[in-house]
Amino acid sequence: MKPQPNQRLSSQAMAFVLAGGRGSRLNELTDRRAKPAVYFGGKTRIIDFALSNALNSGIRKMAIATQYKAHSLIRHMQRGWNFFRAERNEYLDILPASQRVDESKWYMGTADAVAQNIDIIEDYGVKYVVILAGDHVYKMDYEIMLMQHVETGADVTIGCLTVPRREASAFGCMAVDATGRITEFLEKPKDPPGMPGDPSQTLASMGIYVFDWQFLRELLIRDAEDPHSSHDFGHDLIPQIVKYGKAMAHKFSESCVTSGLETEPYWRDVGTVDAFWQANIDLTDFTPKLDLYDNAWPIWTYAELVPPAKFIHDEDGRRGSAVSSLVSGDCIVSGSEVRNSLLFTGCRAHSFSSLDYTVALPYVDIGRGALLSRCVVDRGVKIPAGLVVGEDPEEDAKWFRRTEGGVVLITQAMLDRRAAVLG
């Protein structure tokens, strides 16, 4: 079956987003929400990037497979991504692990999450399937990757990052020939392969795969019947295609979307508290590595109807101000000093308080005289008046989670335990 003439390939494709991961390295940030539902960048969630890339690329059929603590994610989908219209041949399906195939089976792996929904994907009537991870931050035009997939006649096309070879052991890595055909796929190897022409660099998998749907359908059915398979794309299906079929590498640099301000392709796995904090704080730079202000490639999300941010008091030592910071709607900075920080929707910073290199998630209340530095504050936390965090590492670690990088994560449960001990 050839692509339909005079149609973008993306209009014949669907995006299948794997959004069931817990993200345990984010610690308490994922106690109540899956990693794709974690907040990022002032008003968005991590999953908004993969979905926005698909939408901006021209894909109007999407499915999101959820599993771990999915309520926050599903609610976000219902509120922020409910604009698809079936009469325009647009669809967005949320596919929780619901024991559809077997009463004892949840999603057993990434491939199984797709296999359990074969009948639903069939109903879309699509030619191509783009498999996406729902927990990375980047901007990418999937149409370019689809074009390469068709032009090369690949069985699978894999999105790849170019990373220094010494750092590649954390990824699934690929050895390729001069044409970009993958000759070997290695999951987190101790000695990653170099690239043709540049042995100091390695191609690492982004967890993005393009398949012809009929090819993938048959592959999934065979894999589901294999009792020795872990039913995972990276561990099972991809190595099999590399060995017996045609797997092609697609370099992220060829389809990365930039506004002209970004100096290099931007991709982040914000899978640890340190990485999450750093990626958010990076947005406060004079010229950030990721341009969120690019209206040509918007990051769609649930836009709450809230009043504008407000800054009040103008006295020495009590001046509502924010410098090199992102301040979202419904925030009130009342006689507080905010520097190099992000305030998500609905935050309150009271008089004589100070925030420096702090990421405050929605509806955080910073008490009078509190001083916070190098912190991540979870949603809805009420910081007590006078609390000082970021000056005494031992005291911080006594009550809160302090990372190896010196970032302090604060949740309401931690504050409640502290209050109970101190009386």
From TrEMBL:
Annotated CDD domains: ADP_Glucose_PP, LbH_G1P_AT_C
Binding site for alpha-D-glucose 1-phosphate: 107, 172, 187-188, 205
Enzyme class: transferase
Gene3D superfamilies per UniProt: Hexapeptide repeat proteins, Spore Coat Polysaccharide Biosynthesis Protein SpsA, Chain A
Record pathway: Glycan biosynthesis; glycogen biosynthesis
A Gene Ontology biological process term: glycogen biosynthetic process
Annotated site location: Could play a key role in the communication between the regulatory and the substrate sites: 67, 106
Residue ranges of every copy of the Nucleotidyl transferase domain listed in the record: 15-284
Recorded catalytic activity of this chain's protein: alpha-D-glucose 1-phosphate + ATP + H(+) = ADP-alpha-D-glucose + diphosphate
This enzyme's EC code(s): 2.7.7.27
GO-annotated molecular function: ATP binding; glucose-1-phosphate adenylyltransferase activity
Residue ranges occupied by any Glucose-1-phosphate adenylyltransferase/Bifunctional protein GlmU-like C-terminal hexapeptide domain in the UniProt entry: 307-410
Keywords, in A-Z order: ATP-binding, Carbohydrate metabolism, Glycogen biosynthesis, Glycogen metabolism, Nucleotide-binding, Nucleotidyltransferase, Transferase
InterPro entries according to UniProt: ADP-Glc_PPase, ADP_Glu_pyroP_CS, GlgC_bac, GlmU/GlgC-like_hexapep, NTP_transferase_dom, Nucleotide-diphossugar_trans, Trimer_LpxA-like_sf
Protein family (similarity comment): Belongs to the bacterial/plant glucose-1-phosphate adenylyltransferase family.
Function noted in UniProt: Involved in the biosynthesis of ADP-glucose, a building block required for the elongation reactions to produce glycogen. Catalyzes the reaction between ATP and alpha-D-glucose 1-phosphate (G1P) to produce pyrophosphate and ADP-Glc.
NCBIfam families in alphabetical order: glgC, PRK00725.1, PRK00844.1
Record note on quaternary structure: Homotetramer.
Name assigned to this protein: Glucose-1-phosphate adenylyltransferase
Native source species: Rhodobacter xanthinilyticus
